[in-house]
Structures are given as C-alpha cells and as structure tokens.
Amino acid sequence: MINVVVVEDKHPILRSIVRKIENYSPDLNIAGQFTDGRSALQAIKQLKPHLVFTDIRMPGIDGLKLIAEVKALAPETTFIIISGHEEFDYARQAIQLGVVEYLLKPVTEQSIRDILDKTVPSILMNKQAAEYRIISHAIKRWSSPSQVEYEDLSYESFFVMLICAGSLSKLFIDVANPLHDIWLRTDLKALLSARFPSLQPYWIMDGESMNEAVIVFSSTREQAIDLQAIANYLMEKLSHSNIPATVAISNRVITLSKLKLEYQITRTALRKYLLFGQSSIVFAEDVKWHSPHEPLRKQIYDEQKLVSLFKGRKKKLFFMEIESMLQSWEMSGMTQNAIEDCLYQILYACSKSIVGKPPTDSDLKLELDEVISISNDYPSLLRNTSFLFENVFLQIEHTEPSPKIVKDIMEQVDAYFQRHMSDEISVNDIADRVNLNLSYLSREFKKYKGITPIEYLTQLRIDKAKQLLADESNLKFKDIAPLVGFSNQYYFSRVFKFITGITPTEYKNSRFKITASEYNKSTIE
C-alpha cells in the first residue's frame, strides 16, 4: 500500500484530485488531504506518506517551503507539484529541491494516470528496499532496536521460514559444500510468484551458511498464509534435482522487535531436528525442547568392536562395519545432530588409542564438520567418512610425513593458491596434487595458517578483489569476478558480503569517499 497526501487550497480541486487518485488503484491510500501548507506539514511528520501532491501557492506556508522542510526530515518522500502555467518559475525552483514531476492545471484523469504510471514503480521499489532493510536489521541486529525503527511497517504479523539445502554447515565460509551456490541457481522469488501469486509481501535474504536461505512472510487476518503448502512446494522443486531440503517454520511474530529471537529459536529447531539426507518440515511450535534423547549409542553402533578393529589394524573389516552402520542409520532416519555425535565419539575413541598421539578436540571437530558439510546423502557421507578414518589409520601406521616435509608441502599449497586464485580450485584436487589425505591436509594447513585451506583461498580472493575495487581502472563486477576465481558476479557479491559484511558496491563507495576525503585534505593543506 502506498500512502498519499494531497495538499490543495481550493476544495473542489482537492476533491477532484483525490477522486482521480482513488480511481487509479486500490493500492493507493489517501492518508490525508489538506487545504493549507502548515496543517499538511504537521500531519506529514506523523503520517510519513510515500507520495505527496502539493499546490505551490497556499496560505500558511507555500508548497516550496513544505517540500524543503519535508525533504529535510524524509528525503525519500516523493513530491508531485500542481501548478498553473503562470507558476512555471516556482516549478523550476521545486525541481531544484528534487521534485521531478509536476501537474499542470486543470488536472485531468489522464494526466493523473500518466504521472502515477511514471512514479508508482519507483516508489514501490524504494518502499520494498526500505522494508527489506528494516526486516534484515530486525533479524540480524546486534543491539536492541527502538520501536520507532519499525513503525513504518504496518503488517499484523510475520513468520520466519528457514530453508537448508543439504546438510547444515557449521562453517562460516563453506564453498566446498556442493550446494554452496544453490540459492544463486534457484530463484526463490520466481518460484513463489509462479505458485502463490497473491502472497502478502515477503522478503528473501541470506542465511547463516551459504546453503541456507531465509524468507520472512507478512500475514493478515483477512489473508491466512499456508506455510506448509509453501514448504512442500519448495521441497518438491528441490527434489527434482535430488536435493534434500529441510524447511523450518517459526511461530507467529506479532512484535517485529521479537523477530530475531524467533529466528534463533527456529534455527535451533532446524539444527536439532534436521534429518540427514532427507527432506522434512520442522515447525517451531511443535518442537519439544525436553524431548527424550536419541537412542543410546550402543544401540546404533558398537564402539568397542570398531575400536578393536582399529587397534588390530583390520582396515577392511573396520570400513565394512562403518558402511553397515551408516546403512542402518539411513534406514532409521537419523538426525544430523545424532550422526555428528556418534561419529565424533567413534573418531575420538579410535584417535585416543594411538599411543603418544592424544587427540586434539578442536581438530577432530573441525575435520568432522568439514566431512558433514560436504556430504548431502549417505553415499557421500560414507565416502567422506572413509577418507577421514583413512587419515587416522595413517597415524597408527606411522606413515605421516616428517614435520619438515609437511612444512614444505604447506608452503607449496600456499604458493599454488597465490598463483592460481583465479582458477577453479577444489581442496580435493590440491590434496591429490600433493599426495595427501584430504582431512590430513586440512588439519595440517590449519596448523600452518590458522584457518582451513578453503577459508584461506577465499580470503586471498576477497583481498585481491578489494585491491581491484579500490583501483582507478573502474573494472565492473562482472570483470572482477573471474579474475578472483568466481564463476559469476552474483556469487562473487554474495561471498564478498559473507566475508566483509558489506556488498562490493558499498565497499567501492566507501573507498571513493575515503579517496575524496584524502584529496580534499591535501588540497586544503
């Protein structure tokens, strides 16, 4: 809904303009109509309309002063001035104040339609952008907001929907995840518009991991929203590409300031109840936070048997047992949470049996997090888990390279990243190139650089992108993306924002301001 205020000192003309605006579209709401500038100014401060039609010559304060004062408080307000031929000089002054449209008297139905056809699309675009900023801030804010920040949103209630494609990643930068670009390849807005064209306004934004998306739906009493139908539809669409998806749906949110809390509760429910390798819906209102624990570990795997096989170096039997265990988990529909817990306990038990090499808890968890993040079904989980345990067998067989050799290899990997950051690189390829197990490479590289290989490569690419954005060559984003190893500018922009917290455009603009400031300072000196 676009709120409109009309200011015209002659009552018949005022009523005529209001009627013509109402005839244009039911989406335009006449929030106020006034015959003098002073009353209009006081009301506009409270009403905060999107669009104001105003005469120029009026009692109290004239239209130009009204425009100037409102623009100082709310520069995004759109003005259309109503003037006669003899007032063209006034109209020219209004244009200098940022008013780009004006109506000549007498105002006809067609002239109203023509001018609204030109102005309404941009008003809607600005309105949607402003609402997106408010909703995004409500979910991702770090400080408590005041209610004033949200008073422009007049929706009755909201729901948060989280969509996780594949497994839930704990890694901030997870470009190794095979579904890291799923929401660049999947146009959620187009999908929803095709199937649910009459939805109330909704806002789509990035989730905490690259394979997550967040949709905030608005709702009214008059038009209930069938969230389960939407979730089923999206899961069905993703299933066509063999992508398991978990959709978590929040409770109703009445107060926008509570949106972040409800988002956090919903994501906790997603993390707790996501079924690995399967599509499912989780409703936050149905979650039993004190529900019975998962089945006892001894009922879903035999730790003693696995450790015995590991100690006896019976690798073939060990991996057969792992495969059988995963098959039983798939049949029973295990949650990702339970799988992570069980695999960690097995990994820890096997690692601590290695004499003289006590396990490092953080290393084990990091390696397991990487395995889970790149596994979206049980076949890939078996393959990646086997790589992980293969590394543990290397330790018991004492076939690890010496510290000096490891250091040399890490330096080779670092140099390769530096030289080939614009190429399509996978950590699997690097592991094969230096003849190391993937999990072993990740662990040793983290010791060497403090971050995982993929995080390091991504940071190199973003640092190079910053240099190119700050350069005076004015390269376009579509040109920068391939230079720093990204397949397209949209994927580049998303990763850039994940790393820096701002978009490439915002970064470039901030650099321009700094450069301009430095130039002005040097000129003054």
TrEMBL record:
Domain HTH araC/xylS-type residue range list: 411-510
Pfam families per record: HTH_18, Response_reg
Domain (Response regulatory) ranges: 3-120
Positions of modified residues (4-aspartylphosphate): 55
Keywords tagged on the record: DNA-binding, Phosphoprotein, Transcription, Transcription regulation
Protein name: Response regulator
